[in-house]
Amino acid sequence: MSEPDSSEDYIVLINDEEQYSLWSQSIPVPPGWRVTHGPAARQACLDYVDEVWKDLTPRSVRLRLQQAADTGRAAE
């Protein structure tokens, strides 16, 4: 496997589950994803993802957990 081209610009994508993906700017953004950062150098995009993606749990799972916790508090 070859090393990524450091001269190529990248973008960071996010989907509705608030999951991130590093993507080459030269490839069309796939359905269900939108640009959240870039275009920028690969390392700058990786740094951005590292800074913002603290909880890897998908959004739908976080919401279900929160609803369950809220329901449990209401029953007390």
From TrEMBL:
One of its GO terms (biological process) is siderophore biosynthetic process. SUPFAM superfamilies: MbtH-like (SSF160582). GO terms for cellular component: cytosol. Gene3D superfamilies: Structural Genomics, Unknown Function 30-nov-00 1gh9 Mol_id. Residues 1-51 form the MbtH-like domain. InterPro entries: MbtH-like_dom (IPR005153), MbtH-like_sf (IPR038020), MLP_fam (IPR037407). This is MbtH family protein. It comes from Lysobacter enzymogenes. The lineage of its organism: Bacteria, Pseudomonadati, Pseudomonadota, Gammaproteobacteria, Lysobacterales.
